[in-house]
Design brief:
Elements lengths: L5 H9 L3 E6 L5 E6 L2 E3 L2 E6 L4 H8 L2 E8 L8 E12 L2 H14 L12 E13 L2
Antiparallel strand pairs: 1-2, 1-5, 3-4, 4-7, 5-6, 6-7
Length: 132
């Protein structure tokens, strides 16, 4: 497994939103924003199973994510792009064990009980950064 450096890990932990790129059934790229968290060198996203991103990743598990920081002073711009293969976790018990980790970063998103959700797990194969 690709190891993520400590400064990249810190940047990802502090980030609030990522954009994930997937490919639809016609081969067209799709990008969508999501809340996320990282744990054990993996990136996690919780979403509904019917989202276009989830449908795309079922067909083609390859994806790329981008977390960035913008500043009017362009010398302060930063980003981290991670490419890798995703796994969709649909077992409710497995999802709930990860949910408490997400809740620490996004407490406003509430309790998942009764919701039909899936977990997207991205295993990094390549990391590209700017100023990290």
């Amino acid at each position: 497994m690709l190891e993520i450096s400590s400064n990249v890990k810190k940047f990802l932990e502090e980030g609030r939103l990522l954009r994930i790129a997937s490919v639809d059934k016609n081969g067209s790229p799709c990008i969508a924003p999501f809340c996320y968290w990282i744990q054990d060198e993996m990136v996690y996203i919780l979403t509904r199973p019917e989202t276009k991103t989830a449908r795309n990743l079922r067909r083609n598990p390859e994806a790329a994510i981008l977390v960035d920081y913008y500043d009017e002073d362009w010398s302060q711009l930063k980003f981290c792009m991670i490419k890798g293969k995703t796994t969709l976790i649909e077992n409710k018990e497995n999802i709930l064990k990860y949910y408490s980790i997400r809740g620490k970063k996004y407490p406003q998103q509430g309790d998942p009980t009764g919701k039909i959700l899936i977990l997207i797990q991205l295993k990094p194969s390549k990391v590209v950064t700017l100023r990290l």
